[in-house]
Design goal:
heterodimer, A: alpha/beta, Rossmann fold, 6-stranded parallel sheet, 6-stranded mixed sheet, globular, B: about 325 residues, mainly alpha, ABC transporter involved in vitamin B12 uptake, BtuC, 13 helices, about 0% strand
Chain lengths: ~375, ~325
């Protein structure tokens, strides 16, 4: 082919590609779904624009899936009064700040950032976006226009532990852990404490994948745990890969964040789910009524944010009963998971007898309790 | 002794997991080897594998047949590779830039096509066993309880060695990679041969991608190949384009990956982040040591790698 022919082919292809791209962008193929704008009966109040930033894909079947289900619940609750939108796969770095500013630029007045790693980017954006209310999940830094919310996932982990302690035959449990932050360490500990409450001989092995969402790595980690003797697994990662691996290898596991029964029907013991809807409805309601103020919310079973669902039929009755007792106790506040005496890995007391840990203590847990094997990467 | 037995069992399981983990890399890297022996570098391996992964997954979701899934994956890989080949071989575009573009395109396109498949599940995966060999104590669980493709990868490596170094066609392929001008002067259609190599290599990368989504982690989420395409590319280079070394590198990488997770599970006192880097470091070190003779590298690297060829220019 001569150079001239090549050049003319390139020119035609390039020009048509640019034209196509321009046409697509003009027709708004940028962000994902937006709820259809409702015609206000009288041209009174513009619907409140609410945006959500997700760290993973809506279809992860776990963490982000749970958030998106709550977003849909909010739409259902408030109908015409709000318009929601979301952006998936926003990475936990400077990209996030760009997305938040972009959302504000598009008129969103209430923005939810659904992962720990958005903390600094959101704080930076908050300084400039004074008329926007920012909500940060699982973080601990706030500002006048930025507040945090979290769910007591450790309650779900404890309930899973109660079941796991009764179901394990090898007395070895396994946890596929994501990133070494207090939340995850706390979950590992709570899982172990729950299991030890029904079976004091239980040990927990932990493998860190250092990511929230990586199905092949989660599969490999779960395989390694099972090969190492664990027969009941829990995860703190965002995909159903761990449950699937357990199904493949004939072991048991728990679903996490969302109901994962369908991914491993034989292996599934129960799912520790998070229901963000009650909090999201409260937050949007406050924003609509002008009652929004900065705060730090941490909701659990009591507020309807955490639950253990779809417990398997072959779990023995006494385990189910114990789990239900724990759930009821958490609901009415009569039961505390982190109540002393609790021993650290080295055998020393970290919580004295009858002492109940406060939220500050819980927020700073970076040690393993007795029964968990290994060391926390970069921790004590 | 119970402890000794369970340790042996653990090692057997580790070996089994290694073979599984290394197969994806082996299939992809061997496909890329075919490309590179003909002188073409296809940096689009990751995008190719992702598109093949969704193609394979979708095929199994709709038909329930794994073989169709693999075929779909190979088809997707071949089609994308053919587009790449047309651009690079006939229109003479820069191989590296085109490959990168293909990678980005493949990642986005597969994510887009895959939106509807994210919540889908496949029919339960049937565990495979080689009939008598799987029951041999220790060696059975270690080596003979794998999916047929695992053995396929080994067979492929051996087949490639035979093809490249013992057949006339293989010789022609290698000569095209070494000196396309000479091959052209001898009357071989260099461009068609390179195109065939690119398509064949793409089909193999596609097979690797389909293996990830159909067998290895049977679900679809965007980006699920998680960098294996890039690792395969590096593997081919570090193994100095020799099929046996590519296989070794693939299993080494897969093995150290599983080993580091296993080590974490035993509570060894090394930071997990360091352990995560271990597979990459180990593979680079070992292969670099094997291939440290610079003369040997020059001998093995296809001389025209990455350079375009135009007859008559």
């Amino acid at each position: 082919m001569t150079d001239l022919t090549k050049r003319s082919i390139f020119k035609t292809v390039a020009l048509s590609a640019v034209a196509a791209a321009a046409a697509l962008t003009l027709f708004g193929c940028g962000k994902k779904e937006e709820a259809p704008k409702a015609e206000a009966p009288a041209a009174k109040v513009e619907p409140l624009k609410v945006a959500f930033a997700y760290v993973g894909p809506v279809g992860d079947g776990g963490w982000t899936f749970a958030h998106d289900n709550a977003r849909k619940a909010v739409e259902k609750e408030f109908g015409d009064k709000i318009v929601t939108s979301y952006v998936e796969n926003v990475k936990e770095n400077a990209d996030a700040e760009r997305v938040f500013r972009d959302m504000a630029g598009q008129g969103n007045k209430l923005i939810f950032g659904t992962t720990f790693g958005y903390m600094e980017p959101m704080l930076k954006a908050a300084a400039d976006l004074k008329d926007v209310k920012l909500e940060h999940a699982t973080g601990y830094k706030t500002a006048d226009n930025m507040r945090t919310y979290d769910s007591r996932t450790y309650e779900g982990a404890y309930m899973a532990g109660v079941i796991a302690g009764k179901m394990t035959k090898s007395n070895t449990l396994g946890v596929v852990a994501s990133v070494p932050i207090p939340e995850v360490v706390r979950n590992i500990n709570s899982f172990t404490l729950g299991a030890q409450s029904v079976n004091p001989k239980v040990k927990t092995k932990v493998v860190w994948v250092n990511e929230w969402f990586n199905p092949p790595k989660e599969t490999e980690a779960a395989t390694a745990l099972i090969n190492g003797g664990a027969d009941v697994l829990m995860q703190n990662t965002d995909s159903p890969a761990v449950l699937q691996t357990a199904e493949k290898m004939g072991k048991r596991a728990f679903g996490w964040d969302s109901d994962m029964t369908a991914y491993g029907p034989k292996a599934h013991l129960g799912s520790a789910v998070i229901n963000w809807a009650p909090y999201y409805i409260k937050a949007v309601g406050e924003a609509l009524e002008g009652k929004w103020a900065t705060s730090q919310s941490w909701w659990g079973v009591k507020e309807g944010a955490i639950d253990m669902v779809s417990v398997a039929a072959d779990v023995p009755e006494d385990a189910k009963k114990k789990m239900e007792e724990v759930k009821a106790g958490l609901k009415d506040g009569s039961f505390s998971i982190w109540k002393g005496p609790i021993l650290g890995q080295d055998g020393k007391e970290v919580l004295a007898k009858d002492a109940v840990a406060d939220d500050k203590f819980l927020g700073g847990i970076m040690f393993y309790v007795k029964g968990v094997e290994g060391k926390i990467p970069g921790g004590k | 002794m119970v402890a000794r037995e369970s340790m042996m069992e653990t090692y057997a399981l580790l070996i089994a997991a290694t073979l599984n983990a290394g197969t994806v890399l082996a299939l992809a890297a061997l496909g890329l080897l075919i490309n590179e022996k003909a002188g073409i570098v296809n940096l689009g391996a990751e995008g190719l594998m992702l598109c093949a992964a969704i193609a394979g997954f979708a095929a199994v979701v709709h038909t329930g047949n794994d073989l169709l899934g693999f075929a779909a994956g190979m088809g997707a890989g071949a089609v994308l590779a053919a587009v790449f080949g047309l651009l690079v071989i006939w229109l003479g575009t820069n191989q590296y830039a085109t490959g990168l573009a293909l990678s980005l395109f493949g990642a986005g396109f597969s994510a887009f096509v895959g939106i509807g498949y994210v919540q889908e599940k496949l029919p339960p995966r049937v565990p495979f066993e080689v009939p008598f060999l799987a029951d041999i104590p220790w060696i059975g669980p270690a080596l003979f309880r794998q999916h047929p493709l695992v053995y396929g990868a080994v067979a492929l490596a051996m087949g490639l060695i035979w093809f490249l170094y013992r057949t006339r066609t293989g010789l022609v392929l290698r000569s095209v990679g070494e000196s396309p001008e000479s091959a052209h002067a001898l009357g071989y259609n260099v461009r068609r041969i390179r195109f065939a190599a690119v398509v064949a290599g793409g089909a193999l990368c596609g097979l690797a991608g389909a293996y990830v989504s159909v067998i290895y982690t049977p679900l679809w989420v965007e980006g699920m190949v998680a960098g294996k395409g890039w690792i395969a590319l590096a593997l081919t280079t570090f193994a100095t384009w020799r099929p046996a070394r590519v296989l070794l590198g693939a299993y080494l990488f897969g093995g150290v990956t599983m080993l580091q997770f296993h080590l974490q599970g035993t509570g060894v006192d090394v930071p997990s982040q360091l352990l995560t880097a271990l597979p990459y470091m180990a593979t680079i070190v070992v292969l670099a040591l094997i291939s440290r003779n610079p003369a040997w590298i020059r001998v093995n690297m296809p001389a025209s790698l990455g350079k375009p060829f135009q007859p008559g220019s």
